[in-house]
From TrEMBL:
Catalysed reactions, semicolon-separated: ATP + H2O = ADP + phosphate + H(+)
Motif Q motif positions after renumbering to this chain: 14-42
Name the UniProt record assigns to this protein: ATP-dependent RNA helicase DBP9
Keyword line: ATP-binding, Helicase, Hydrolase, Nucleotide-binding, Nucleus, Ribosome biogenesis, RNA-binding, rRNA processing
Region of interest called Disordered, as start-end residue ranges on this chain: 330-361, 564-586
Main location: nucleus
Domain of life of the source: Eukaryota
PROSITE patterns registered for this protein in UniProt: HELICASE_ATP_BIND_1 (PS51192), HELICASE_CTER (PS51194), Q_MOTIF (PS51195)
Domain DEAD-box RNA helicase Q: 14-42
Length: 586
């Protein structure tokens, strides 16, 4: 599901059976093992079934997607029952990213499991060309999922007709739609909708831009501000920051992953695509596997990476945050420009042409993607805005589980001292951190300093420097081109071959080594003399901080038994000269 319901937000006094839904829809809900609706579902569904417009503010993980899908599917089924021969698109769902469009489509498929023939859905946010999508829309599916730009393109070409059949319009993640620059496309699509269409406006925050959408045709919407579960959720999230130089970031990330200081899955956020490959190649030197996720990868590969990550195939994703791409792409002289909160934002005006593949403008990682069971969010590069920070850390501590957010902050006096690893956005880290801390104080939380025992960490410094020298700019560019070619091929396989051979997916991985120009096998193993006396935890001054376990963290049972047997003398190869009991012939 695109929104994994948080158990702490479930309304125990209401059940789905109380909504008097179509039996086919009720059966699908029961199959999904939903007994009680979440708070936003309990409030929104009855109002939506009455035909009222809904403007809902609720956090990620609260079940917003199901809150608008159930009334829409119920309405479509009721209309089809009354007039089986009626045809036409009845619902248009607009989302900011292709990844979110895919997740909403999967949710619809689950809820229409027993009514798929009368309630069909087409996702036109896929990378397929308009020529391929036109026949799909010509069949007049009841529900269409799209991004605003894709929907507008089909409306202008005449392949998507909204009049007069359209009954429902959904604007999901409205705040993100406005942040991504979809405002003009969104306005044009709304103007193309028939008057009186029932509108659902879903958002995590109600900014001025989001509230302005009410004036585009909503009819006295019921406004739901649901924040009851926020305090409980944020208490499950531990936030820390480490002040260090650019070079020390690589030292700490090596120690964290090689000594397994964080248990569970981790998302590492960086502010630039090349930077993501630098971190990946650096970790490869030590035998630490990871996969990259950025805007230039094919959409099929991105969706598959997230899906496999959620299945625990990968433990580390190095994600390029789309919110910081424009800032980092600016000219170096624009570093003096302030990067403020969205209410008073100021972006660099100059742009620099970037080499490489075309980036997907409808890509999003920090919001709109359902990462599951993430134990740690590591801000390798601090985000440039408060909202981007909030969206990043929202990937962990979801659905009632605990999590940790650790941010590396470069002090101004340390900026630029190591040219090869300098990130332009790091120049304003301290100012951005100050704004983030003020915002967290308003929310009743704080970002605590995280102390490493540097006397223990420094023992690994020469190995870090050795590995970092091997990750040259040429190696990064070669790896980036190789990864892109590899993922384009993988994307085509996902699109064609693997639909017919799903068993082959287990052989397809996205965390393969890219092999920089200089490979040093000896770095993959940590010698005993470097290990702290207290083990991996010895590098931390605060022993009980930062461990977020989501699985089995005990010793390997087989290895433990072997060690016990060795201590008892079992399992050793006997000396043939001492144990020989042969007898000679008489």
């Amino acid at each position: 599901m695109s929104d994994s319901p948080d158990p702490s937000l479930v309304d125990q006094d209401v059940t789905f059976t109380s909504f008097n839904l179509d039996p086919r829809l009720q059966r699908a809900i029961a199959r999904l093992d939903y007994s009680n609706p979440t708070l936003v579902q309990a409030k929104a569904i009855p109002l939506a079934l009455e035909g009222k417009d809904i403007l809902a503010r609720a956090k990620t993980g609260s079940g917003k997607t199901v809150a608008y899908l159930i009334p829409i599917i119920q309405g479509v089924l009721a209309r089809k029952t009354a007039n089986p021969t009626e045809k036409g698109t009845q619902a248009l769902i607009l989302v900011p990213t292709r990844e979110l469009a895919e997740q909403v489509t999967k949710s619809i498929e689950q809820l229409t499991l027993y009514s798929a023939k009368v309630c069909r859905c087409v996702n036109v946010a896929t990378p397929l060309s308009e020529a391929v999508q036109k026949p799909l829309l010509a069949s007049l599916p009841e529900i269409v999922v799209s991004t605003p730009s894709r929907a507008l393109a089909h409306i202008n070409s005449g392949s998507l007709s909204l009049r007069p059949s359209l009954t429902y319009l959904v604007i999901d993640e409205a705040d993100l739609l406005m942040e991504y620059g979809h405002e003009e496309d969104l306005k044009a699509v709304v103007k193309g909708c028939p008057k009186g269409v029932q509108t659902f406006l879903m958002s995590a925050t109600l900014t001025k831009e989001v509230e302005s959408i009410k004036n585009w045709g909503m009819r006295k919407p019921a406004i739901l501000r649901l924040e009851e579960g926020d305090a409980d959720s944020e208490s499950q999230l531990l936030q820390y920051q480490v002040k260090c130089g650019e070079e020390e970031k690589f030292l700490l990330v090596y120690v964290i992953f090689k000594l397994r200081l964080v248990k569970g899955k981790t998302i590492v956020f960086v502010n630039d695509i090349d930077r993501g490959y630098r971190v990946k190649l650096f970790l490869e030197q030590f035998g630490i596997r990871s996969c990259v996720l950025n805007a230039e990868l094919p959409v099929n590969s991105r969706l598959h990476i997230v899906e496999e990550f959620n299945k625990d195939v990968y433990d580390i994703i190095i994600a390029t945050d789309e919110a910081d791409l424009n800032v980092h792409a600016g000219d170096s002289s624009d570093d003096e420009a302030a990067v403020k909160h969205e209410d008073n934002s100021e972006r660099p005006s100059k742009k620099r042409k970037r080499s490489g593949a075309k980036q997907d403008k409808e890509y999003g990682v920090s919001r709109g993607v359902d990462f599951q069971n993430v134990s740690c969010v590591l801000n390798f590069d601090l985000p440039t805005t408060v909202s981007s920070y909030i969206h990043r850390i929202g990937r962990t501590a979801r659905a009632g589980k605990s999590g940790m957010a650790l941010s590396f902050v470069v002090p101004l006096d340390q900026y630029g001292k190591h040219k090869a690893t300098t990130c332009l956005t790091a120049k304003r880290d301290e100012k951005v951190l100050t704004r983030i801390e003020k915002e967290q104080e308003k929310r009743g939380t704080s970002i605590k300093p995280y102390a490493f025992d540097m006397s223990q960490v420094d023992a690994f410094r020469y190995r870090m420097e050795d590995a970092l020298r091997a990750v040259t700019r040429a190696a990064i560019h070669t790896a980036r081109a190789k990864e892109l070619r590899q993922e384009i091929l993988t994307s085509e396989k996902l699109k064609r071959h693997f639909e017919e051979n799903p068993q082959d997916l287990q052989h397809l991985r996205h965390d393969l080594e890219l092999h920089p120009n200089r490979v040093q096998p000896h770095l993959k193993h940590v010698p005993e003399y470097l290990m702290p006396k207290a083990g991996g935890e010895g590098v931390m001054e605060k022993r009980n901080v930062g461990f977020v376990g989501f699985g089995k963290v005990g010793e390997n049972r087989i290895r433990k038994n072997r060690a016990i047997n060795r201590a008892k003398g079992k399992g050793k190869k006997a000396d043939p000269l001492k144990t020989f009991k042969g007898k000679g012939k008489r």
